[in-house]
Amino acid sequence: MVSYSSIRAFGALLQRFSNGVPFKSPNSFALRAGVLIKNSSSFSPNSSWLSLYEDKLSVPVRTIQTFFPVCMGRRSSKIAGRKLNATCLMKHPAEILPLMWGAQDAKKAKLYSKIGKEVVSAVKRDGPNPTSNTMLAAVIEKAKELDVPKEIVDRNIKRASEKGQEAYIEKFYEVYGFGGVSMIIEVLTDKINRSVAAVREVVKDCGGKMADPGSVMFKFRRARVVNIKATEADKDQLLTIALDTGAEDVIEPPVYEDDTEEDRSESYYKIVTSTENYSAILEKLREEGVSFETDNGFEMLPMTYIEVDDEAMDLNKELMSQLLELDDVDAVYMDQK
């Protein structure tokens, strides 16, 4: 017969694995006085061996719940995610709302950061006077065009004069994503070693691969782009504006069979144009009452788009999201459809 001390030792070991399991499930078992009982209802309460140890030890019953993992498709995952977000928002508005606002303003913050870096570089090169510094004058004009607040420019002109502040250098890193997708990472940094190390770490952790210089860049072209939400205007209206202002192209947002109304509200038309026509297009959109988002001075547009499966799409999205969280990274471009 098993000794009393052995029973206690076995019970203590099992108890270490029985913490933090709040889910309810029929697949459960009870832990009583060091004895494991699978679906305790299946045992007779009159069993003599069970009664013996329950009499000797008054240990509270702990229940370990088990459950099978739930696998969801792309559409189900989207719906579940939205329901979870709504529940969290209702229960914890003070914590969730700032995070939502931060996500919505992330693109604008990246734009302000990039303009600030360009201001610092221009001041470092030819001084803080835009009259004599043509590079600074061009950055200030671009900031006005992109609706960047004046205080952002003024603050960075002052920062450029501080001791120890170095000029920023523009760099592009090329990456292989998932499903044959290629990415270009735009960086404006004052510490190249720091930026490349951070990018390499994220790419490695997410399962991507750094590409050799030039192996990805030829798949993209540099252009000025105005982004318009698909819900803000229709295709015919944008085509008319593009023709009137001499734009090069209007790129439609990708459409998927399982897209919801929320998905469509997050998709964008892109009006592609030259630098010379950019201001005219912005002015025309304002006249038509169409809301828009500017680029950061340019975008890298893929020559052709690659269609991938849902798994590769999610992995590429996660990789892009992680890269954009880096301070030195201003933009990430990819040729995924």
What keyword list fits this structure?
single chain, about 325 residues, alpha+beta, 5-stranded antiparallel beta sheet, 4-stranded antiparallel beta sheet, 11 helices, about 20% strand
Task: Describe this protein's structure.
This protein is an alpha+beta fold. The protein is 46% helix and 18% strand. The chain is built from eleven helices and twelve strands. The chain has helices at residues 4-15, 48-56, 74-91, 93-126, 134-145, 150-160, 192-206, 235-245, 261-265, 275-287, 310-324, and strands at residues 28-32, 35-38, 62-65, 169-176, 182-189, 209-210, 220-229, 249-251, 268-273, 293-294, 299-302, 329-334. Strands 7, 8, 9, 10 and 11 form a five-stranded antiparallel beta sheet that branches. It has a four-stranded antiparallel beta sheet with strand order 6-4-5-12. The protein has a three-stranded antiparallel beta sheet with strand order 2-1-3. α3 packs across α4 (93-126) and α7 (192-206) runs antiparallel to α11 (310-324). The longest helix is centred in the first third of the chain and has 34 residues, at 93-126. The model is unreliable at 18-59 and 61-104 (pLDDT under 50).
In a few lines, what is going on in this structure?
The protein is built from eleven helices and twelve strands.
Query: Could you tell me the strand content as a percent range?
Result: 15-25%
- Poorly predicted runs are 18-59, 61-104
Q: Largest beta sheet, briefly?
A: 5 strands, antiparallel
The proportion of residues forming helix, as a percent range, comes to 40-55%
Please give the oligomerization state of what you see.
single chain
What distance separates the N and C termini? 68 Å
**What is the tally of helical segments?**
11
Rg calc: 29 Å
Order of helices and strands: HEEHEHHHHEEHEEHEHEHEEHE
Q: Which descriptor suits the 3D outline? A: globular
| Helix-and-strand structural type | alpha+beta
Number of strands: 12
What number is the mean pLDDT? 75
